[in-house]
Structure formats: C-alpha cells, structure tokens
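Hi P.,

Sorry for the delay on this. The queue was packed all week, but I finally got your sequence through. Input first:
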Amino acid sequence: MGLTRVAVKLLNSDAHETYNANFLVDTGCMDTMAPAFALKKIGIQPEGKDLYEMASGEIVEYEYGIAKLTFMGEVVATRIVFGPDNSEPLLGVVALESAGFLVDPKNQRLTKLRARPLKMAV
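Then the structure:
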C-alpha cells in the first residue's frame, strides 16, 4: 500500500487568503492538520486546545481552529490542528467523511460515495 495525497485549498471564511498544499490522507488521524505558521498567515484563529496521540504513542497538546477546505470538488468546514511549522499537512477522516469520500489504499486514491448515509433509527 502506498501513500495518498490530495490537493487541498484551505481558507478562512473571514478572509481572502488561502493555503494550498498536497495533504497526506491519513485514516489514522481524526482531525486535519496544517503547519501553524500557514494557518496564522491566512487568519485562522485558535478556538481551543486538545490532546492528540501521536503514532509513537506520545500525547501532545495542540491548538485547533475551524477552517473551510476544498478538495476534489467538495467543500467542508472542519477542525484544523495547528501543527508544528515543519509538519506535513494531514487530511483526517472527519473531513474525508464529511465530504463523502472513502480511501482506496490499493489504488492510492479517494472514491466518492454514491450517496451519503442518512438513516433514521427506528
């Protein structure tokens, strides 16, 4: 299995600045993350802090904010983590699922759901 990357445009709803990068699709990551300097540059403000478990098992506290992401023809608003300035941008499962995508690791691509599940419990 290889790595899947997606071109993402990240923007602050209140500003015209954008951050464009190829984000690594990470199904082990709930939230989306970008370098803190890039988020601050486009005016995204921290809304709070949360604890995150790294792949090594280390627990780290990071600030997070809210951003609008556009990728593969979809637009979603999601929590964005203020990562270290040298970090690779990560596209987490919350944003992927909100946009209606599944990960196809064999073919290293995202596939669009035919329809989003919306079922009422009876």
